[in-house]
Design brief:
Helix 1 packs across helix 4 and helix 3 runs antiparallel to helix 4. The protein contains seven helices and no strands. The chain is mainly alpha-helical.
Length: 112
């Protein structure tokens, strides 16, 4: 998995440097495309088109890398910081899994 992720990062970085379209993109110009990709995920799920879902999830993953690369270029943050923040947030939101909070069902999880 690590190799696949690193390869995708390399592909994205190469496109950002060598593709005229990718070079011109900003946070703002990517937003409509990101929204479109998210909608395509929803459509694939609705249709139970799992092969297409795999493709669309890859597109959204690419967008996450793309935003992170732009942020890194602006010295705001990088993909490592995004992943670390995601992990911290998930642990914080799941104290019943990563802490000592005891719950008896989904309702209590939602309350927490």
């Amino acid at each position: 998995m690590k190799e696949s992720f690193e390869d995708l990062v390399k592909v994205m970085k190469k496109l950002r440097k060598e593709c005229l379209w990718d070079k011109e993109q900003t946070f703002e110009t990517l937003v409509p495309h990101t929204l479109e990709e998210a909608q395509e995920i929803a459509e694939a799920v609705e249709k139970k088109d799992w092969e297409n879902l795999k493709e669309e999830l890859g597109d959204v993953l690419y967008h996450i890398l793309f935003y992170s690369e732009i942020a890194e270029e602006k010295e705001l943050f990088d993909i490592k910081a995004v992943m670390e923040e995601a992990g911290k947030k998930l642990k914080r939101r799941h104290p019943h899994v990563f802490g000592d909070v005891k719950v008896s069902g989904v309702e209590e999880i939602l309350e927490n």
